[in-house]
Design goal:
- This is 5'-nucleotidase.
- This protein has two domains: 210 residues, HAD superfamily/HAD-like (Rossmann fold), CATH 3.40.50.1000; 72 residues, Pyrimidine 5'-nucleotidase (UMPH-1), N-terminal domain (DNA polymerase, domain 1, Orthogonal Bundle).
- Helices cover 41% and strands 17% of the residues.
- The strands form three sheets. Strands 1-11-10-9-2-5-6 form a seven-stranded mixed beta sheet. Strands 3-4 form a two-stranded antiparallel ribbon. A two-stranded antiparallel ribbon has the order 7-8.
- Helix 6 crosses helix 8.
- By secondary structure, the protein is α/β, with parallel strands linked by helices.
- It starts with a helix and ends in a 7-residue tail after the last helix.
Length: 302
Amino acid sequence: MHCKTKLFSVQIPELAKCSVLMRERSRVEETIYAMQRAGAGSLQVISDFDMTLTRFAHNGKRVPTTHNILDNQLLIDEDCTKKMRELLNTYYPIEIDASRTAEEKLPLMVEWWTKVHELLIQQRIRKDMLAQAVRESSAMLRDGYKVFFDRLTEQQVPLLIFSAGVGDVLEEVIRQNHVFLPNVHIISNYMDFDQTGVLRAFKGQLIHTFNKREGALSHAAGLRALQGRPNVLLLGDSLGDLTMADGVSEHQNILTIGFLNDQVEERKESYINSFDIVLVKDETMDVPNAILRYITSSRDRK
């Protein structure tokens, strides 16, 4: 018991914060110990992007998702902005409705993403304007993001970013924050531009909040960098993110961290029952960084 108390209070004091909720503390401790003993060479990190690696809000104002960043006069007109907002107001409450099952939400999410992508294609978005749209946006990664990306790079731990957002915009956000590093792999919805650099379609299978399992099974298995790494640290802000590790063959330990950003009281119970660790209205990477620091340190490794 002594060493477990020590883990929480001394090695990872961040886990004692009142914004951190856990259903089974002992299971979390055991998983972290097992991962630490196996070391950085056995670890991979799989993370959602919007509202997980990016902030949910800043100074009381929502931070834009990769789709929201496209809501810029450089790229789309006022009518498109209005229609996208109406779609958000219709479908986002469904996405986060704790009383509906993932099965109920699934066709409605396909409907939402498909309608948004159709609107964007109609706007004939130009590839060369994306960087400026990101620069002009208020997109923000969570506090402590640089420590997170840098530690993973130093320890040669692959980071798989699995996003239902727009891959081209996501890449631009991390590039402008100087963390698009060689160990970063991205699965997302990518735009397909014609020879003149105008958006004409979206590539491949649509990825939305509740079909990440299919994407995980079809993509992750093909990424050689992830092979032979049976320990997974998974970060997400939606219950749909829990399936992102389904492509990991022969996994040994999976530790899931859920960011509960919105409708806290309505969703708290389902998050605590689903994620190993739940972070309530926490706009930082403090807890993932503390866990990574512990797992990748060689101290006490047997």
